[in-house]
Q: What sequence folds into this?
């Protein structure tokens, strides 16, 4: 009974730990808005409720991590908050919705919220690292497997004290405490796996992590059978470090667990948020830039013979072909098996074309592609199909970037990988950034890329 109570206590505390990280920012942002609104207006009107729904959609799930460096924590909090606030402010001005609010309330909310978040993060961090909290979640654990995977698990447990896990030591299939590997990596080898069941019973071990390689499958199955007489929780630690994971997660099919090693980040609720943000942003931007589109269209038509729009086949989501629009900036409209990338001082680029390429104005018609659902505002830049067929054979993981819709701008572009790729190594670096985007995606990350793109438009030396 005592063991059961301790396990329930641990599970509740662990759930609290996760809930704090997910909900602390969205709840405090909304609560601060409500408190200020009620204080100044004596009531909470429907417009604040609508604003809170938009705020929750932008900030959930919260991305707070218990940073060990206070300055870094403060900097990240301010950046995250003002990015979200800036998005709301942009929508407010663009739709005139901001006029329904008191400017005094909005500005006070903008200033007070990050301060409250910083204090709350400090309090939460203090509590999660307190002796009381750690004691409430503390559990004893052992790791089966004297290898690099087991060492990495031990290091990560030690780096996250709030988990309350104390690793007592290691068991292995070979009982040799003087082995070169155990001595070199300071493993505390407790014995052979055959001794594990008795050790678990006599030492109140709560959790067992099995980090044995697949080659020891039969030994693993025998160990699991021997451990059926214990009440310890058992976890298998798969060696995923051998793979370059994209949005890894555990799922199930009718109760059978499956592990996603490479998947799109835009599934389920995330996919809805991404599609909604693309639709809203592209609609607003197209309304705002429609006069510019008309003027540029006329300028392209009058400056040189040829069509206004340049249409080119590219690979879209899941590698299906799409047609991408751009203002024509060259005297040619290549879209065949051999497409030559634009280079510095390329004679095919018109005088107007040089300007609109430098300022990225030639990309503006792609907001129509976004509205059509073919592209996203942020994502890996689409390459000509002929280039795809070349590089997919030369660069490992090249086609993984097509797990998401191509974007008007992307993580690679704001990190200097725009324009001509003169070598396979240069293209590989671009692909590395694209894959990093798939791993790290969040709505806040998208907004960061959009803002950096705007800042880079007029000073990008790689645009020509």
A:
């Amino acid at each position: 009974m005592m063991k059961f109570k301790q396990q329930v206590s641990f599970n509740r505390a662990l759930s609290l730990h996760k809930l704090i990280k997910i909900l602390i920012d969205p709840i405090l942002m909304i609560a601060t808005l409500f408190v200020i609104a009620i204080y100044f207006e004596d009531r909470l009107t429907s417009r604040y409720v609508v604003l809170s729904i938009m705020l929750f959609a932008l900030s959930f799930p919260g991305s707070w991590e218990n940073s060990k460096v206070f300055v870094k924590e403060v900097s990240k909090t301010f950046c995250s908050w003002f990015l979200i606030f800036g998005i709301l402010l942009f929508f407010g001005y663009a739709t005139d919705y901001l006029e329904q609010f008191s400017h005094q309330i909005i500005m006070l909310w903008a200033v007070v919220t990050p301060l409250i978040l910083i204090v709350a993060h400090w309090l939460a961090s203090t509590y999660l690292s307190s002796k009381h909290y750690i004691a409430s979640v503390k559990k004893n654990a052992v790791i089966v497997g004297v290898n690099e995977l087991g060492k990495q698990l031990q290091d990560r447990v030690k780096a996250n004290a709030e988990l309350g896990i104390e690793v007592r030591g290691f068991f292995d299939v070979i009982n040799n405490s003087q082995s070169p590997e155990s001595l070199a990596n300071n493993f505390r080898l407790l014995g052979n796996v055959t001794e594990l069941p008795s050790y678990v019973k006599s030492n109140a071990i709560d959790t067992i992590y099995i980090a044995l390689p697949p080659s020891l499958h039969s030994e693993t199955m025998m160990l699991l059978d021997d451990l059926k007489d214990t009440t310890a929780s058992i976890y298998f630690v798969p060696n995923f470090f051998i793979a370059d994971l994209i949005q890894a997660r555990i799922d199930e099919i009718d109760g059978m667990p499956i592990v996603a090693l490479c998947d799109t980040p835009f599934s389920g609720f995330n996919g809805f948020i991404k599609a909604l943000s693309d639709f809203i942003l592209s609609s607003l931007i197209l309304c705002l830039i429609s006069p510019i589109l008309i003027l540029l269209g006329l300028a392209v038509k009058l400056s040189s013979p040829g069509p206004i729009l340049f249409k080119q086949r590219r690979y879209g989501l899941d590698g299906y072909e799409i047609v991408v629009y751009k203002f024509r900036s060259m005297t040619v409209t290549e879209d065949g098996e051999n497409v030559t990338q634009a280079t510095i001082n390329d004679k095919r680029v018109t005088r107007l074309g040089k300007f609109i390429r430098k300022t990225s104005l030639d990309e503006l018609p792609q907001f129509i592609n976004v509205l059509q659902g073919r592209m996203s505002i942020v994502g890996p830049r689409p390459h000509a199909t002929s280039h795809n067929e070349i590089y997919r054979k030369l660069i490992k993981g090249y086609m993984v970037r097509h797990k998401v819709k191509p974007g008007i701008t992307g993580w690679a572009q704001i990190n200097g990988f725009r324009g001509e790729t003169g070598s396979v190594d240069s293209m590989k670096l671009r692909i590395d950034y694209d894959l990093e985007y798939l791993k790290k995606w969040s709505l806040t990350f998208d907004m960061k890329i959009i803002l950096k793109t705007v800042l880079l438009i007029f000073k990008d030396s790689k645009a020509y």
In short: The chain has three domains: 2-131, 138-242, 269-459. The first helix runs from residue 2 to 41. The first strand starts at residue 139 and ends at 144. The two ends are 72 Å apart (CA to CA).
